[in-house]
Amino acid sequence: MPTTFKDYYATLGVPRTATEKEIHSAFRKLARKYHPDINHEAGAEDRFKEVNEAHEVLGDAEKRRKYDELGPRWQEYEAWERAGRPGQNPFQQQPGGFEYRTVSPEELEDLFGDRAPFSDFFETFFGGGGSASAFSGRQPRRRTRTVASRGEDVEGEADITLEEAFQGTTRTVELETGGRRRRVEVRIPAGIHDGARVRAAGQGVQGSGGGASGDLFVRVRIQPHASFKREGANLTTRVHVPLAVAVAGGSVPVPTLRGTSVQLTVPPGTQNGARLRLRGLGMPHVKSEGTGDLVATIDVRLPHPLPDELKHWAAGQTRG
Questions:
Q1: How far is CA 188 from the centre of its chain?
Q2: What is the pLDDT of residues 35-61, one digit of tens each?
Q3: Does residue 90 have a cis bond before it (omega within 30 degrees)?
């Protein structure tokens, strides 16, 4: 079966001369665009896997070198290296001409799969034992093909503050898979919702037989905030407004989740419980550009002690 060549450079949308920084930058942009937790369109998850696979190769200097030099056969070369086969690298041309050596059936299968080009020749002249008994004097042995199996997904939880949800943050998750403990750093995007899951592709249980590793899913819990509450992408807060400002109009300072404060304009005659909106000061949108709003709920405060003039005015209104 011919090897299917995947153009990882085209997958990431970068030229073959791209620097490591450009490759990582292109990956981050595409991973955010096609992440299944963000993009629910059909085909987005497959596209995310393609982008992740391309980054795993081009983001690793050694794998990228093999990919550039060997093209579609780079994975066969890597499999040959991992197997630790003795003798000469079958992909390496020796200086001064060709050098011949005996290749075992195992190596032929590693390089060419089930349809090794010499299998019919060996069976015709030497029986089903293949080249091993004919050339090396060893008794033939039957290989059992290992079926590739994907590793299991694992789950964890992470507690973050509302400020961290606003800015985006990272969490280090400790895992125990395959009998060993390891730490995985997970990026939590800005604007994430309470209870949402973040996926770290390939960070679950390692697959068997060359199968892909499972994924790590981290469920995010956002701790309550003393001053702000969340309504979708909007933030709400209560703002104390003096009676005089509520009656005559004016402005009051309002704190923001960024750690700064802004001036809120209060129109004359503003009622207690009114909601005034500050555009663009809410939570970032995870799936698109822009942010929500900050909604200030007005809490009118009477002066203390009450001035006599106010008492007389209120008494007159009551009698009327």
A1: 8
A2: 887 888 888 888 989 989 889 888 888
A3: no
**φ/ψ of residue 113, rounded to 5:** 80, -160
Give 63-98 pLDDT, tens digit per residue. 888 878 776 666 666 665 666 555 545 545 444 443
C-alpha torsion angle, residues 201, 205, 209, 211 (rounded to 10): -20
Neighbouring residues of 231: CB distance < 8 A, sequence distance ≥ 6: 295
pLDDT of 105-138, one tens digit each? 554 455 445 544 444 444 444 444 444 443 444 4
**Residue 224 has which token pair?**
């309550």
Q: Can you read off the two tokens belonging to residue 130?
A: 């293949």
Residue 218 has pLDDT above 90, yes or no: yes
How many whole angstroms separate alpha carbon 134 and alpha carbon 128? 11
Instruction: Please give the angle made by the CA atoms of 277, 237 and 278, to the nearest 5 degrees.
Output: 20
What DSSP string runs through 72-139? Answer: GGHHHHHHHHHHT-SS--TTPPPTTS-------HHHHHHHHTTS-TTHHHHHHHHGGGTHIIIII-PP
In 3D, which of 227, 233, 159, 149 has the Cα closest to residue 191? 233
Q: Give the closest residue to 103 by CA, choosing from 84, 120, 124, 89.
A: 89
Note the residue count of the chain: 320
Distance between CA atoms of residues 264 and 240, nearest Å: 11
